[in-house]
Write a structure and sequence with these properties.
Helices cover 35% and strands 20% of the residues. With 152 residues, the chain is of the alpha+beta class. The chain has two domains: 1-71, Arc Repressor Mutant, subunit A; 72-137, no CATH class. The model is unreliable at 146-152 (pLDDT under 50).
Amino acid sequence: MNLLEGRVRRFVVQERSIVILRSELKHLGSRSQLTRVLRRLVDAGTLVRVSLGVYVKTRPNKFTGSLKPAGTLENIAAEIFRKLKVDVEPGMLAREYNSGQSTQIPMLPVVSTARRRITRRIQVENRVVIYERARHARGGGPDRDEKENVND
């Protein structure tokens, strides 16, 4: 283990968040050095790469003993967006479930980005965050509440 790898490992251990952004490490060394160190940490199972420049700490699964990301995809995505200063909300189905309007539990990790267009792919194992954008206020057609009123 070289000096930079030790510094990065110390940073990962001391960081309270489970999400590590590459930009948080740039003061430790050059871009190519960080690439090599991060690749070694991913190969060793200390970190998991979930997006471009985004890594997540791992912890052992209590049933199988294998290393898994230290949080759920929803928690990881929320923390990534918080660190990147991007405002997102739960998707429409999750909002309906949380407000009691629906009894169906949403199975897909969907986040609403309002009118902002986001293309960042966040993937943990085989699950991917899906983005939904809010409808435009004009010309987007009736939204869900208006459709319900028309049918009544």
